[in-house]
Fold this sequence. Notes:
DUF3090 domain-containing protein, DUF3090, globular, single chain, alpha/beta, 187 residues
Amino acid sequence: MTPLVHGFDWPDRFVVGTVGQPGARTFYLQARAGSQLVSVALEKEQSAALALKIDEVLDRLMAEDGNPFSVPEKAPEGLLDHEPLDEPVEERFRVGTMSLGWDPTTAQIVIEALPLAGSEDEEALEEFDPEDFEPEEVLQVRIPVGSARVFARRARELVGAGRPICPLCGAPIEGDEHVCTLPDSFR
């Protein structure tokens, strides 16, 4: 079965955003072109990893002799987007895997998000073969290099805006009630 591809070749907007309060936030990738709006849920760590990898790809391209794709060193101020997610935020699927690519013919970063594969059922998980997994739908977004820098910056800022991390144990600090559990190496 051919998956439904939610394709955005030059979206009006592509952002990572959150719904909820720190400690109980849900992260979303959201793409919009005209009236087409697609939101997919992902983990905070996936958001951070995607931002890191986008910056790594852009840094490598920028380092090419003469910066042939005009990759900016940092997010262009005129493209920054601090607005909340577009409404309604309706989760199409939860992201399982993502891929990141580069299209030199259009000078665009290509991001593909596939749904979480498998099942909650333990017996079904034992029989699950990822090679046979065919997703029902896919989000595919193509964005220019300046927009990619802006996307990565926003994602890093959102990830960093969560609960503070304890410098000793690495766990999130929950208000004034944090009980630090030091790793064995500190005992």
